[in-house]
């Protein structure tokens, strides 16, 4: 079974952490990307409001084969 590291990074900081984790043998790395990327002000203002209530954001399809990373 391989390890799959899924991450989201607006500023790039989480990307750096995920890349360090992915140096582990048998680790795959996949970025979660929203369908539309908000501007900086919108991301922080709308993101703060979204944190207060359950909301979802459409994301682009994940390319990784999730079945290859599932427990048997």
Which descriptors apply to this entry?
single chain, 72 residues, alpha+beta, 2 helices, 14% strand
Low-confidence stretches are none
The share of residues in helices is 25-40%
Secondary structure: number of strands: 2
Structural class computed from helices and strand pairing: alpha+beta
Task: Please explain how this structure is put together.
The protein is an alpha+beta fold and 72 residues long. The protein has 2 helices and 2 strands; from the N terminus they run E-H-E-H. It has helices at 13-21, 40-51, and strands at residues 3-7, 27-31. The chain has a two-stranded parallel ribbon. The radius of gyration is 14 Å and the shape is elongated. The mean pLDDT is 86.
Task: Annotate the secondary structure layout.
Elements: E1 3-7, H1 13-21, E2 27-31, H2 40-51
Parallel strand pairs: 1-2
